[in-house]
Amino acid sequence: MSTELWVEKYRPKTLDEIIDQEEIVARLKEFVKTKSMPHLLFAGPPGTGKTTAALALAHDLYGENWRENTLELNASDERGIDVIRRRIKEYARTIPIGDVPFKLVILDEADNMTSDAQQALRRTMELYSRNTRFILIANYLSKIIEPIQSRCAVFRFQPLPKEAVKARLKWIAEQEGVEVDEEALDAIWDESQGDMRRAINILQSAAAISKKVTVDTVYEALGKVRPREVREMLEVALKGDIIGAREKLRVLMYQYGLSGVDVIKLLHREVLSSRSPLRLNGLPLADLLVLIGDANYKIVEGADDEIQLMAVISKIALMASEAKKSE
User: Fold this and answer.
1) 80-106 average pLDDT score
2) What are the residue ranges of helices labelled H in 63-212?
3) pLDDT at 179
4) How many helices (H) and strands (E) does the chain have?
5) pLDDT value of residue 166
6) CA-CA distance, 249 to 111, in Å (whole number)?
7) Is 169 helix (H, G, I), strand (E, B) or coil?
8) For the domain 227-325, what is the CATH code?
9) Annotation: CATH topology of 162-222
10) How many whole angstroms separate alpha carbon 326 and alpha carbon 318?
């Protein structure tokens, strides 16, 4: 099994290898075909292929010369106005190699740039537009100033769908000689929620523990509580055993070291699960969500974690008791 970072090893190298962003890829291929493009702004959640698409575009545009014609900067580290005035301007003055009439500047995490740096970048984009194109990458489009947005063609990346993520993970597992079951893939999806980078990292961490990746291996790699432990606590509460549920809550909080907010988030996920014992016992989803939301607010405002969580569990037990009486 490879010791390389799988995220980099299996990063798509060309636009054809990018999955489930067909509309975006089609538009980028037109730029490659015509060897002409405007400044670009890639926006969307982490791990959805923004940086990969930028690098694949550079590869398809320049071929073997793509590194010589591409300047990649991370704005979260190099976000000051000095970097804009020095490094980018110096690079933008040089002539591109090959038959493409412009060079590329890829500015990752551009939404972390200071306002002054963005203003300087706006002017730089104007001055050197003849032989330089900029690709700005941001998680939050609203953090990019309007003058820059208006100078770019905006591409909005969406979280990858579940089946696309699972299919890619299965393919990677086959390449690495790792066996991964369906339940483990579902657990990885639950943790990554469309973030392919996070999904691949979780798979690699789990594969380092065992070549047969199961749901237990996934949660062991994550160092997180398994959903079934939260489910067991709720099942005990539904039976009316408040003391037993309290003991299971204390295991979550003191053995696993979870905060009250962590437990509330797990409860929220469990409530929304179709396999939740709460839903199966006929407890109203709306009432459960309101209950969890109130407890979350109180905990964030400084209320005692354990007391608030016990109040939630006790209320769930009462709701279950009332539901049985009404049957």
Assistant:
1) 81
2) 81-83, 89-92, 115-127, 146-149, 162-176, 182-192, 196-209
3) 94
4) 17, 7
5) 94
6) 40
7) helix
8) 1.20.272.10
9) Helicase, Ruva Protein; domain 3 (1.10.8)
10) 12
